[in-house]
Write a sequence for this structure.
């Protein structure tokens, strides 16, 4: 499976960790929401990644109780 994702300016807490919310779609067009705690940039391309990542200041941190914790990796 392949996903196309984009960062958002939204942060939330999942399992007591602050996570950034990303939104995207699968190749088949299924909409998905990701809760990202960490990203590891490989091959020493940190500067390139940071240029591509359009960092937006978070508006607020919230917990979304509608997300079952069993679905969160």
């Amino acid at each position: 499976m392949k996903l196309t994702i984009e960062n958002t300016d939204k942060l939330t807490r999942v399992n007591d960790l602050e996570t950034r919310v990303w939104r995207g779609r699968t190749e088949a067009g299924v909409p998905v929401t990701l809760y990202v705690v960490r990203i590891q940039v490989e091959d020493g391309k940190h500067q390139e990644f940071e240029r591509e990542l359009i960092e937006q200041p978070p508006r607020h941190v919230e917990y979304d109780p509608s997300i079952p914790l069993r679905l969160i990796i």
Notes: The chain has one helix and four strands.
